[in-house]
Amino acid sequence: MIYPQNFEKKIEFDAVRAMLKELCLCALGRECVDEMCFLSDYGAVEARLCETDEFVRLLRLEQNFPNDFYFDVREPLQRIRIPGMYMGEEELFSLRRSLDTIGRLLALLRRESDEGGAEGAVSLYPRLRSQASGVEAFPQIIRSIDAIVDKFGHVKDSASPALASIRSELTRTSNGISRTLNNIL
Asked: Is the pTM of this model over 0.85?
């Protein structure tokens, strides 16, 4: 425990936290920043500095760093745990884009350098890679969503036979109405 209780405020760590929160891409990042606290343990500080150094290097070296589509989909995921509940079209598309972004980020972190020579490949970002070791991108879920939702986030006609039938009937009815109106005019 750090003494005094208002130590973070006295050294303006709260201002640093506020600046970091402004740079976060989504609510998940802002929550992580809220959980940050001042560290006094040398080893912990050194580890965080090394991770930060790796991340800065990653941002500088990787032109295709995936810094988009970090959506907070916890609420829809909690909701679909209840039998009979489902995600809306936009929520499903957000999940798909988030999983894709996570997959691209993991691919960057898992990429290796040739610098290991005869000893083998060396991780370019070993600390960040270690941090992400338990993270999965669930490519099978992405494929399942792709079978249902198009690249614009709209449910495909082919998502189910019933939907295909309903949309086909709507199109036929709409075309029939259009022909009738054209004949009247």
From this structure: no
